[in-house]
Sequence to fold (995 residues):
Amino acid sequence: MSESTYRIQGDTGEWEVVIGLEVHAQVTSNAKLFSGASTEFGAEPNSQVSLIDAAMPGMLPTPNRECIRQAVRTGMAIGAVINKWSRFDRKNYFYADLPQGYQISQLFHPLVGEGQIEISLDDKNPDAETKSIGVERIHVEQDAGKLMHDQHPTRSYVDLNRAGVALMEIVSKPDMRSPQEAGAYLSKLRSILRYVGSCDGNMDQGSMRADVNVSVRKPGDAFGTRTETKNVNSVRFVMQTVEIEARRQVEVLEAGGKIVQETRLFDPDRGETRSMRSKEDAHDYRYFPDPDLLPLELDDSFLEACRASLPELPDAKRRRYEADLGLSAYNAAALTADADTARWFEALLAESARVQKKGEQEVARPAANWLLSDLFGALNKLGKDLDTSPVSPEQGAELLALAADGTLSGPLAKQVFEIMLETGDPAGKIVEERGLKQTSDTGAIEAVIAEILAKNPGQLEQYRGGKEALFGFFVGQTMKAMAGKANPAVVNELLKKALAG
Amino acid sequence: MTDVTDLGIAELRDGIRLGKFSAREVADAFIVKVSRAKALNAFIVETPDHAIAAAKDADAARAAGETLKPLAGVPIGMKDLFATKGVQTTAASQMLEGFKPVYESTVSGRLWDAGAGMLGKLNLDQFAMGSSNETSYFGNVISPWRRGGGDNAALAPGGSSGGSSSAIAARLVPGATGTDTGGSIRQPAAFTGISGIKPTYGRCSRWGVVAFASSLDQAGPMARSVQDCAILLENMAGFDPKDSTSLQLPVPKWEDNLSGSLAGKKIGIPKEYRVDGMPEEIEALWQQGIDWLKDAGAEIVEVSLPHTKYALPAYYIIAPAEASSNLARYDGVRYGLRELAEGQNLQEMYAATRAAGFGDEVKRRILIGTYVLSAGFYDAYYTQAQKVRTLIARDFDNAWAQCDLLLTPTAPSAAFALGEKSADPLAMYLNDVFTVPSSLAGLPAMSVPGGLDKAGLPLGLQIIGKPMDEQGVLNAGLAIEQRAGFVARPESWW
Fold:
């Protein structure tokens, strides 16, 4: 564990930033927290609203077991205390997008208690600089609907599709000290949620968003007054919010002003945070236990089933890749940061081991390198991701096998891969049809070499005169003449012999 | 020929089965009675078509030789707190005037499934808040009873299920649904000389019942006999996955197991229910009830419920607290009333809508509830009231170590005249003093008529039972009914 040394340089000296995040993560579930209505993104307004979501008279909530299960699994994934007894509370306030006039949440007795998330501050060497960020609690609550003000000149419309959707509110402790730490925490949290499958983590679709609490202090002082910047919806924006808001606070304090505890919003276009409402007109939410719902009591078998269903999590997976597969720390981290990447890699690995009849550790390195550089490079250029990759793990494994058994040289493999991306054809077919096989035919190679030496008497003389660096020149000429199909090892061997005279 | 409107649920059911009369004759007779009783203002909406359709189904089933459903062709009244599909459901509030739900409450749906027909939606205190039926937006319900001696003062039918009690007592319906939050079935039953049972909290689904105070609200039947209450309750109760506070228990055969013998039963008499200033007649009735139960074979024991005096204050914190939250949904956005003047904003729309749509008593309780839940007062009021509630429940638990059932008066007085207490909310709240403790504890409790006071008005006795012991409560009710021989009925003046 290390202390970040991020400091803001003010006129009166250095300032330290204190950050806490409240992350709202939409629970992956086909139905809302207390009704059977669908939760699909992007549907027609008000097409996914049950009588319960619309708070029709006499309607009652009933908890959706799947939402509870996902929140429990999330808690387990961060090593948190799971409260076997929790309770839903009503948070009362009036707003047109809140049909019941209250949100069902958990204030007094949350489902998940304290846990922690390990963050890493060095991408190249994830174990070099790590820090543990405390999670205060995770509670489940309903989302509100949304108001649309742009549909009519004088009217506002209400869309209740989101109303009642299950959210996990994941509240960190004020343990972060730099924008980098806040970004790393949010990325890591998102990675864990996606591994667990409890939230899709799609911040651009609003299924994950963060309220950013920031305060500043002189190092060693007590916590300063904090502000809360609402609904920040990307890792980059969270980092910017911290930076901008902390700098603003320093300026206010150094000018002799005071920080007001208030709610702010982040405007990425103008690169500033603005006041939304101050604490003075804060709501009195009048929380009290929801009398329509009995306390939530979880039994051991439910908890065991939750635990048994947890996948291998990113840190464990990264360490296993290093230890068992012999991957570099950097590659292991790159492959495991995202659940989809790890899944794709493991499919590639398993298929490679199968077709090459080798152990996974033997095929792991070339597979990792190919995925991280060749495939990611290609997908980047195409503007695609693994989900939409034109090449499947099975096809990748075939290509890797052809390279491993010497059928394809490195350059040939790259060439075949290009064609695969364009045509979608399997590597073997491309090799067959286009004759892109690597050749180790010594007779053919020797003939080409003889020709090259004859054509370049000057270089030959220099080489034999001691300029050994020219060896590469002869290799290049030979490969070129063989259209890249010659086996480089054979070329090397034969060239050495021929050059030696 | 008998006037079928004098018959109760069991007699109507059996008569239709045996072909003594047709369900259609029954429906028509009650429909006529309802249409001629406007002076009582017991109905907000009359639904003769619904009753006739159910009657036709029953007659057709009988003609086809089919087994009749448990309530085939029996017409009833439905308190207007139950959502009825396609039929205006208002909770007696302007806020919901004209609201026709696209859904049917679980309880009403079960009754229709059992073959019952609906004569109409019965008036009540607005959002079930009141003890006299003077808070309805659709006007006061008048009790069919009058004091003797030429006193023609209009009397309260009790509340909040006053439309139900009035209609049953006046023989406009043989039975009806009620809901009870702090006594809203039992007190009106007592005031009008009928029976009514609030079952154990969770017995009847609250789904589709306009909420007043969720942790207390419970539906139950009202009728002219204990047997009729048992029949209706059997067809209302049962587990409902749509209500997470619903009890996952089978519905017992209460009617089949009715017995007026209380041999081996111990009846507790809570000493704290002897309140100062209680009319002598109530005292005398209570003693009479004790004697009847002894006669039925029960042993009488005195018990103590030491926290009784805190029940009413606790109730008037918890119920309004929940109500203030439950009624937040009436905001003018999605259904019901909307008051929005040109140029007003959202906040102004809320304020105007709620100011216009809610009656005074509803506003009073919303304000009390908002206050007791507000930051700074929560612990002093709400938390404290919840602790009292726990102590009251514990009182009852302790009592069950000594007895099987409790006997108390239902209300501290007979029916009062309309207007007599409406200016004094606290005096009005005292009406619930005997019914509220068992509500806070979620226990089954019933009122049965015991006799008349000097003015000729009915008085009720209350039996309180252990959780889930509706059978014990009904049996003790039957024992009283058999001995009281209560046959008094209001003279028709309407």
User: Anything to note?
Assistant: Residues 266 and 273 of chain A are 4 Å apart (CA to CA).
